[in-house]
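Team,

Forwarding the record for the chain on the shared tracking sheet. I've put the sequence and predicted structure together so nobody has to dig through attachments.
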Amino acid sequence: MRRALALLSGVALLAGCQGEVPETPDAVETEIPEDLQQVEMPEQPAEEAGVGTPMAERVATIGLLNKRNNVSQELELKPGEQRRIGDVIVRLQACEQTAPWEMPKETGAFVQVLVRERGNADQFRRIFSGWLFKNSPSLNVVEHPIYDVWVKDCAMSFPGEEGGSARGEDRGEPAPAAAPSPAAAAPAPAAEAPAAAEEAAE
């Protein structure tokens, strides 16, 4: 009898746990100790070449997954910003994407991930620091049993996109020669035609 009651209570407790929806913690601004911050900024070829939105004005969208409760969130960060969600901190150093005229297309972000150590409320350990790529995620991954982080977008623009696409002159290519107008291409009428007609009549 006791065994049956214990079994029933265990089933009821399990059903109650399954019915609960895990709460999603809010992302809050935080500070990272200097010894855990990236000392040097990563290379920024597009910015150095003067192409595209300045780095400080770009906005990256970073995905964060908690594997324990299967809750995912999106973080929008500018370079130099970080957010804390529960026991994890995500910091953005830089983000890039290929120009419209470059192939193959790729979007990347230089990210730091810090996780709070057990038993210490203010002690964090850096578990990842490097580039993450949207279209080639296997090149660099965040290896952690609880958290997964990936890049989703880098909001920036390039010269010529105001008109919908990059133009040839923006890429240093010569502009195509203008086609001659139909009026210029048509031959002028012969001026001698009336005079010839008069001579024939005489």
